[in-house]
Amino acid sequence: xxxxxxxxxxxxxxxxxxxxxxxxxxxxxxxxxxxxxxxxxxxxxxxxxxxxxxxxxxxxxxxxxxxxxxxxxxxxxxxxxxxxxxxxxxxxxxxxxxxxxxxxxxxxxxxxxxxxxxxxxxxxxxxxxxxxxxxxxxxxxxxxxxxxxxxxxxxxxxxxxxxxxxxxxxxxxxxxxxxxxxxxxxxxxxxxxxxxxxxxxxxxxxxxxxxxxxxxxxxxxxxxxxxxxxxxxxxxxxxxxxxxxxxxxxxxxxxxxxxxxxxxxxxxxxxxxxxxxxxxxxxxxxxxxxxxxxxxxxxxxxxxxxxxxxxxxxxxxxxxxxxxxxxxxxxxxxxxxxxxxxxxxxxxxxxxxxxxxxxxxxxxxxxxxxxxxxxxxxxxxxxxxxxxxxxxxxxxxxxxxxxxxxxxxxxxxxxxxxxxxxxxxxxxxxxxxxxxxxxxxxxxxxxxxxxxxxxxxxxxxxxxxxxxxxxxxxxxxxxxxxxxxxxxxxxxxxxxxxxxxxx
Length: 503
Ligand SMILES: C[S@@+](CC[C@H](N)C(=O)[O-])C[C@H]1O[C@@H](n2cnc3c(N)ncnc32)[C@H](O)[C@@H]1O
Prior knowledge:
Layout: E1 5-6, E2 12-13, H1 15-18, H2 38-53, H3 57-68, H4 72-87, H5 89-96, H6 109-124, H7 129-143, H8 146-161, H9 164-174, H10 178-185, H11 190-202, H12 210-217, E3 224-227, H13 234-239, E4 247-249, E5 256-259, H14 268-271, E6 275-277, H15 280-291, E7 300-303, H16 310-322, E8 325-330, H17 333-342, E9 351-356, H18 362-365, E10 370-376, H19 391-394, H20 397-417, E11 418-428, H21 437-446, E12 448-449, E13 452-453, E14 455-458, H22 460-467, E15 482-483, H23 486-489, E16 495-501
Parallel strand pairs: 7-8, 7-10, 8-9, 10-11
Antiparallel strand pairs: 1-2, 3-5, 3-6, 4-5, 11-16, 12-13, 14-16, 15-16
Helix pairs in contact: 2-3, 2-4, 2-6, 3-4, 4-6, 5-6, 6-7, 6-8, 7-8, 9-10, 10-11, 15-16, 15-22, 20-21
Bound molecules: S-adenosylmethionine.
The site of S-adenosylmethionine has 18 residues, from helix 16 and strand 8.
Protein name: 16S rRNA (Cytosine967-C5)-methyltransferase
GO molecular function, one term: RNA binding
Organism: Xylanimonas ulmi
């Protein structure tokens, strides 16, 4: 069905013709298709998988589209419909609750998903109202039954009667406090909105930036590539672009190129591992660890939590240029295999070992054995919500308490594993203070030799500024640690603390 096209109203065109069926206009009204089109059906099936099987939308949707032959503009429509609906679910539920005559949790989950998809078409996409309503009613009829389809029709007409800005004003006015208002309008759980607001304030930023941050989480990021130094240059990588592929320079990292919407695997260097897909925030924190000032030996580097291997591959490329070696450790065997794959283009002899094991054991097994250590700690991922449409609704505060103990142990073990004078980078893709500053504070407070700390923070913003493209002003707070933000830097909200072992 690759020749099918979606019309300007978001409707899929030509599907029936391609299958040899009679088209809408050629049919008598009584025989017209009353079901839905493949893009909407695919989006619905993804939402069901996410809800019923705890699936990840970005793993379910691409193979489903391939299997069903949904391509081109239809695939783009299905993707925006599924991901946008998942991201904005909180906002749409608050609106739908005002249009449905019973609590939303008393609706059948498939019916609620149909309503959410309809709300996104009406309020969040440029699908004209009549097409959005009638196509969603068709979907409801096909997937949840004729009775519920009538209800979908009535509810979506109510939703469509009020323009989005007015809905948002209503939601804001009804919220009990400012953070709840931001959370509902910006479609995040309240506990996450509150944590992000605290993290903004903790970084010396204006908490009023919260709305901009939540909005940035609701915007799909562009695909960013890393040209791994010494393996391929950005100029060579650009030279590999097929006709029509756009590659823009990154905003911060000299290794970054931003892709304009095509498959990165069309680039030979991505296919063979000399380049990869990597957020610029991840690139600059790995570059900063490699650039942090160090006296004496600089021969052995360790990535303690390496899976799936993006930062390990960048570190290994840098290590190769500097005559150092890298050990990459990962606890999950399948992720350790991904690390080995990510490192496939690194010259022989640079990767000492891909170790599968618990990072908490390395410090005891190899005390003081490394010069630079990366702890890219397992975390809530609250800094990468824009990448994972459903994750904000899955996470709970309980996840946080489970992770922060592990984060402390991994950081402390990394300090054991680094030599005196060596550097540890503590990194999370979360700005939550409980996973960032509080972890580091606590570990440094507990690590005392004869009452004196054996490790101290060094200037992470200076290390970051040293690696960004020349002449670029990287805005950061005035603390020793560094926090990147989607709404400020256009990166994931990566946190970086650099720690030096001093005794
Ligand atoms: C944030 S991810 C690392 C991402 C990676 N650095 C990259 O850039 O591709 C954290 C990793 O830590 C791993 N992990 C969790 N607990 C661990 C432990 N106790 N020891 C080592 N690795 C662990 C997870 O399986 C996960 O792959």
